[in-house]
Design goal:
Blueprint (H helix, E strand, L loop, with lengths): L1 H7 L8 E3 L15 H11 L21 H14 L11 H17 L8 E4 L2 H15 L7 E5 L5 H9 L2 E5 L10 H7 L4 E7 L11 H10 L3 E5 L7 H6 L16 E5 L11 E5 L2 H7 L1 E3 L7 E3 L9 H37 L4 E3 L7 E6 L5 H10 L5 E3 L8 E5 L8 H18 L8 H7 L7 H10 L2 E3 L8 H8 L3 H15 L2
Helix pairs in contact: 1-15, 3-11, 4-11, 5-6, 5-10, 11-13, 12-13, 12-16, 15-17
The chain binds pyridoxal-5'-phosphate.
Length: 501
């Protein structure tokens, strides 16, 4: 508490920056309200949301630029909304649709008509099931371990955390950001149940050496999961459009499972991913059944039990509404936009693209006095969202752009915004943080703070939780960037707790 007070009275204290959150509690109405009334309120609640269409938000959302495709998905989603995937014998439509969707993914990713898979709610769930399958397919003495390159998605850490598995992190090549096969080899122990490669890894959009890593895993008798959550429904189409894409799918010897999110480059509404397995026994190891109670028998393919078939209907409809030619067209414009973006950023003074992305995910860092966190805030003022990524494992802080089918139409405007924001960031200089704050945070027992004290602490860096206005995040990002990962995590959890309080 004393420490928090000291931080708040620092001489660098400035006008609060704000994270806008809803402050009103729902009071259950005495009588039901009309749908029109409710939709008007939703529109009001969404006023400060990022835009989900139009390409100015370069993360989180995937827009084809074809409203009729999104409409087809929304209608199919709505049609399946009240179907419960809990019991496939009660709703055979679920089995039929899921087989088609999984089959389409398997076919695109080097599998065959009988390749087993599961439709899940997202990449995290697909990865969780792949890790569970690996843990249960080949039991080891002691704590099972997964070998995970540092650029792999945190979903592996989450899966390990939930499933009682340990992560062995391994470095990537500092120049290319691709996983280092020799480091993977050195990390495999008798407890290792799974080795991970990404196609591509999200942070820099580069594809790990899947052929080498999968061969290595096979030679050591270990399973190999390829995380193609973001790239699975992108790389094959980019390859068809002329991009150089290294082998990464189930056709590579040693690859035993692969995850592919349809709610990313499949352009399906959120809640849609697929995990496919090289072998039916592995899929069975991902399943869960329980008859240990006096109620209905539980057989679950996924983490969730009762859930809407809406996302499945939405994904099925999106695949059908776009078709091969639709995805190929989108890949062509995505490829063209990525090339122009990479070339354009290369010409902006003070910016440098990290690595050579094979995909359409582009990360760039700032040099010569350009602070990327400030750049991101400047771009936000111009209506564009560029995603900040903190420094980690020797990789500098940077901004991430996910190029999608809709980007090409606005790529020149995006480059102008990046150039103008870089210039503005140079003039403003790096974000300044209150003196001593990082040291205080690093030494605080964050678990012992209450939410009110944490909220005060946030105010000391100018973040007023629950305030009004446009958020500026450079100070927050700079503070987080200066802290070790465990402290970042503790702060993020406090932050989430505070904005929901
Ligand atoms: C998005 C992503 C995930 C996690 O997916 P969610 O759908 O957000 O759960 C995993 N791996 C990679 C490489 C991703 O890009």
């Amino acid at each position: 508490m004393r420490n928090a007070g000291r931080a708040r009275t620092t001489p660098y204290h400035r006008a609060p920056r704000v994270i806008r959150v809803a402050r009103e509690n729902l009071v259950l109405p005495e009588n039901g309200r009309s749908a029109d009334d409710l939709l008007a309120e939703i529109a009001r609640l969404r006023r400060d949301d990022l835009q989900v269409r139009g390409g100015k938000v370069t993360a989180y959302v995937y827009d084809t630029g074809r409203p009729e495709v999104h409409d087809a998905a929304a209608r199919a989603y709505f049609e399946m909304l009240e179907v419960n995937t809990l019991d496939p014998t009660a709703f055979p439509s679920v089995v039929a649709m899921e087989k088609q969707v999984v089959g389409a993914v398997a076919e695109l990713l080097g599998g065959g008509p009988h390749t087993p898979g599961i439709f899940t709610s997202g990449g995290t769930e697909s990865i969780m099931l792949a890790v569970k399958a690996a843990r249960d397919a080949r039991r080891v003495a002691g704590t099972p371990r997964v070998v995970v390159p540092v650029t792999a998605h945190p979903a592996f850490h989450k899966a390990a955390h939930y499933l009682g598995v340990e992560v062995t992190p391994v470095p990537v090549d500092p120049g290319t950001f691709r996983a280092d096969t020799a480091a993977v080899a050195a990390a495999i122990t008798p407890e290792t149940v799974l080795v991970v490669a990404s196609a591509p890894s999200y942070p820099q959009g580069v594809v790990d050496p899947v052929t080498d890593i999968a061969a290595l895993a096979a030679s050591r008798g270990v399973l190999c999961h390829v995380d193609a959550c973001v790239g699975g429904w992108l790389l094959p189409w980019l390859a068809e459009a002329g991009a150089a894409v290294p082998p990464f799918d189930l056709s590579v010897p040693g690859v035993t499972s692969i995850s592919c999110d349809l709610h990313k480059f499949g352009y399906a509404p959120k809640g849609a991913s697929v995990v496919v397995f090289a072998d039916p026994a592995l899929r069975r190891a991902a399943y869960f059944a329980s008859a240990a109670w006096p109620g209905y028998t539980v057989i679950n393919a996924t983490v969730q039990s009762s859930k809407s078939a809406g996302p499945l209907g939405g994904a099925w409809a999106t695949l059908n509404a776009l078709g091969r030619s639709g995805y190929l067209d989108l890949a062509r414009s995505t490829l063209e936009a990525t090339r122009r973006l990479v070339a354009g950023i290369g010409e902006i003074q003070g910016l440098r693209v990290l690595g050579e992305p094979e995909s359409s995910l582009v990360a760039f860092t700032g040099e010569d006095g350009v602070d990327v966190f400030v750049l991101s805030d400047e771009a936000r003022k111009l209506g564009w969202f560029l995603q900040p990524q903190l420094s980690y494992a020797g990789i500098p802080a940077n901004l991430h752009v996910t190029v999608t089918g809709v980007t090409l139409a606005g790529v020149d405007a995006m480059l102008e915004v990046i150039a103008a924001s870089a210039e503005a960031a140079k003039v403003r200089g790096p974000a300044r943080i209150p003196e001593g704050l990082v040291e205080i945070l690093a030494s605080l027992d964050l678990d012992a703070l209450d939410d009110a004290t944490f909220t005060e602490l946030a105010a000391s860096v100018g973040v007023e939780l629950g305030g009004e206005g446009q958020p500026e995040m450079a100070v927050v990002n700079t503070v987080l960037d200066a802290l070790p990962a465990e402290t970042r995590e503790a702060i993020l959890i406090r932050f989430l707790s505070a904005i929901y309080t």
